[in-house]
Task: inverse folding
DNA sequence: ATGTGTTCCTGTCCGC
DNA sequence: TGCGGACAGGAACACA
């Protein structure tokens, strides 16, 4: 579910109530998500001050004053909601507990941070802050798509041996980290590249269009507070609204939105996932 | 090394 | 209303 823009939206919502504040109480309602939760997680979080809330790819990282870092991944259906914020930035009252509220953090300042994940594809872990980048889930991630290390020369080199369709290659987090099914489809549309095209068969010139297309669609989505399909919410419970700007994702059978294009958006399945594209303007 | 299919889990939607 | 099947924003894992 949440891709980079949604995770960044959550981070921006959580940072004002978590950074600098102390976790007064940590309630852990089940022993596992995708994997077992770390040993003694509740005790290791209780009384700890959150120094910084960072994002790496689709992971949230909270650096604590115990020199440990809490890693959170939202999987497909994970949500984090804030309530009870005394400064009025979020709902003042705590809502009734919901099914699948797996972890609840009460901050000393009054805010409550609730992690809810029906499908439990999400994950949490705790590690020494100094070893965060070496964590197995983070160590092999490719560059951030919005960072300086992601550029035309890098991408040309990274995919030059890849014979898979570019759609599958851009979903590979080792190539570039943070894209998911929606934003790969949308970026390929903006760049005019077919999701079916073999990665190594894309000219450098067209890769030169793909890189800014990826950056732009992510920037646009972050500015819109992410995309809300089914269950994504910003930390304050509001819906993101980027889904209204989708050109192809979920638009099977509808008219291509590019000016002057008479094409119809198609859906195909590639390595088990839906791809949406306009066959008339993506080559 | 690279490519592909399966799997984890719950919920929703659509057709009958 | 109920039931079965398809599908869902991820990504580790097993195996060709």
Result:
């Amino acid at each position: 579910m949440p891709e980079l823009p949604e995770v960044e939206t959550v981070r921006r919502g959580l940072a004002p109530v978590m950074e600098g504040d102390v976790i007064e109480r940590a309630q852990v309602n089940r022993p596992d998500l995708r994997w077992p939760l770390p040993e003694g997680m509740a005790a290791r979080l209780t009384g700890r001050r959150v120094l910084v809330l960072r994002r790496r790819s689709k992971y949230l990282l909270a650096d604590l004053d115990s020199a440990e870092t809490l890693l959170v991944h939202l999987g497909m259906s994970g949500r984090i909601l804030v309530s009870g914020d005394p400064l009025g930035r979020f709902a003042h009252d705590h809502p009734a507990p919901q099914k699948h509220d797996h972890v609840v953090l009460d901050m000393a300042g009054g805010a409550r941070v609730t992690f809810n994940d029906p499908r439990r594809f999400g994950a949490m872990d705790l590690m020494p802050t100094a070893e965060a980048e070496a964590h197995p889930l983070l160590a092999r991630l490719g560059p951030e798509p919005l960072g300086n290390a992601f550029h035309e020369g890098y991408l040309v080199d990274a995919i030059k041996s890849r014979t898979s369709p570019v759609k599958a290659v851009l979903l590979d987090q080792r190539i570039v980290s943070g894209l998911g099914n929606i934003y790969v489809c949308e970026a390929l549309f903006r760049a005019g590249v077919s999701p079916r095209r073999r990665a190594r068969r894309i000219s450098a010139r067209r890769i030169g269009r793909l890189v800014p297309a990826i950056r732009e669609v992510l920037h646009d989505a972050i500015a819109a507070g992410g995309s809300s399909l089914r269950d994504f919410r910003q930390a304050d419970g509001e819906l993101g609204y980027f889904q209204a700007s989708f050109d192809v994702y979920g638009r099977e059978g509808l008219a291509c939105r590019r000016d002057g294009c008479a094409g119809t958006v198609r859906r195909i399945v590639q390595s088990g996932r839906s791809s949406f594209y306009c066959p008339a303007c993506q080559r």
Q: What stands out?
A: Residues 192 and 282 of chain A are 4 Å apart (CA to CA). The first helix of chain A runs from residue 4 to 18.
